[in-house]
Structure formats: structure tokens, C-alpha cells
Amino acid sequence: MSTRQRILATALESFGTTGVDGTSLDALARDLDLAKQSILYHFNSKQILFQAVVDEAASEFIAELDSEVDGVDPNDVLAQVESAVRVVFRLALQRPALLGLLREASRPGSSVAVQLTGRLSHHIDAAQGALEHALSDGRVAGTNARLLLFSLYSTIMGVATEVEVMRAMGVEPSLRTLAERRTELLRFLEAALVPQTISAGVTS
Q: What are the structural domains, with CATH classification, of the chain?
């Protein structure tokens, strides 16, 4: 692994766990056993490093998402949502710092929120288009596709990553509770998305 890639990998772990404000270039240099100037040689500032890390995280997330949804009907909203849930929960288990980084990058007031949205724009537009068609056909409950998509993203990411909130509620994170969270989340999302008239017809 090149020095640049080592810096990106270590910065992603730190930004995704302790946050950008809680990470200093001096601390990163110590973790990497490098001089601070070596980091600045590749990235002129912490902000530029953060932007590069966001690009790395977005690329990895997009690759995971594309692999998961390959072959899934783009008009089957529930199947698409289930695929997104599988990706996020797999990353919560295997790459928790990456999810933490994505949350850090998309929080209100983030300096890289526009950058992240731009990297995900193709997937955002495709998902919004599918939701708009499903709303117009009456297959999904709601009125505003953009707000619905935002709610889906926020809910999925929140349930997968709010570890401290879980602990405060007396739920200790584990493989079992992760699986339980995913199952309950899918039930919740299906109940929220499927119009009552359709769900009543299915169960009757």
C-alpha cells in the first residue's frame, strides 16, 4: 500500500470514529509513524484530506450498492430498499468507520455535504425516479419522493449506526442485535411504504 493510500485509510478510520474535529494531523502522523509534513506533502490541509477521504468512502459505498442491486428490478421499490438495508448493515458489521464517515460527511453544516451528494447523485436521481413512479401508481404511500428518499436514508443509516443510543436504551450491540435491528427495520419500512389499501388486500 502506498503512503497516500495508508494516509487515506488511517484518516477514514479516525474521521469515521472520532470525527473530523476530533482528529488532528499530528495524531494521524503518530498513528502512521510519519512526519506531519509527509501528510501535508500528499494533502495540503486537513480539509483537503477530508475531501479525499469522502471520495474514497463514496466510491466504496457505491461499489457495494451497485453489487447488491445488480439484477434487482429498479421499479421494485421494496426490493431496492431491502438491498440498501443489506448493504448498510453489512458495512455496519464489516466497515463501521466507513458508515461513520458517511454520516459525518452528510450531517447538517458539513463542509463536504454537497460533494458527497454529488458523488451519489446518479443513485439519488434513480431512487427518486423510482419512488416518483411508485407514488404516482399508488404502490407506495406518501406524496413527496425527495422527502421520502431522505427519510429512508436517514432511518436506515440511523438504525444501523446509532450504537450509543442503543446502549442508552439498554440494547448492547452484537451480531444478534444487529440482525434483529435489520429485521425490525425492514418490517417498519415495509409497513411505512406500502399503502394501507394494498396491505389490507394482501392480508385479507
A: 55-203 (1.10.357.10)
